[in-house]
Amino acid sequence: MLLGINNDPEANHKLVDEISGKAFSWYQRLVSKNFGSSKYILKSIDSNMSEINLQEYNDVVRTNFDLRKNGIVFFFRFKQQEFAESCIYEKLTIQSSDKIFVIQTDKNLYKFEIINTKNHLSFIKNLFNFKNNKKLKS
């Protein structure tokens, strides 16, 4: 679910926590070796409801991903507005090639440029581990 955070930050962060779970503490991150991802460049968003058009925007939109108990979250800024995408693992689909990383959430399709291939592969392994562990515990 794509949310504009600036409108009501407290309520929107609470909604993100309800969807994907709360962020891990530093101790939990060390134990589970979950440090999120490296930076990616957001290239496009395909959505019927999104007012975000990255094709006509000259600045670079960077983001990184946070793996949580129930799902994945990423935050980005576009024209002085902060956005968050949150999705549970069961509704998440990914595709990766040499330089492009595609994520399909329950409502949107995102294309990212991979900046660091080695860190990207490590993140993908971690993402699959979280996604598979979630399925095993269900």
Query: Which H/E pattern describes the elements?
Result: EHHEEEEEEEH
Mean pLDDT level: 83
Coarse shape: globular
Largest sheet: 8 strands, antiparallel
Q: What is the tally of beta strands?
A: 8
Structure overview:
With 138 residues, the protein is of the alpha+beta class. It has 3 helices and 8 strands; from the N terminus they run E-H-H-E-E-E-E-E-E-E-H. An 8-stranded antiparallel β-sheet has the order 1-5-4-3-2-8-7-6. The longest helix has 21 residues, at 117-137. The chain is globular, with a radius of gyration of 15 Å. It starts with a strand and ends with a helix. The relative contact order is 0.21. The model has no long low-confidence stretch (mean pLDDT 83).
SSE layout and pairings?
Blueprint: E1 2-4, H1 9-20, H2 26-32, E2 40-46, E3 62-67, E4 71-78, E5 81-88, E6 93-96, E7 100-104, E8 109-114, H3 117-137
Antiparallel strand pairs: 1-5, 2-3, 2-8, 3-4, 4-5, 6-7, 7-8
Q: TL;DR?
A:
With 138 residues, this protein is of the alpha+beta class. Helix content is 29%, strand content 34%.
Tag the structure with descriptive keywords.
single chain; 138 residues; alpha+beta; 8-stranded antiparallel β-sheet; 3 helices; 29% helix; 34% strand
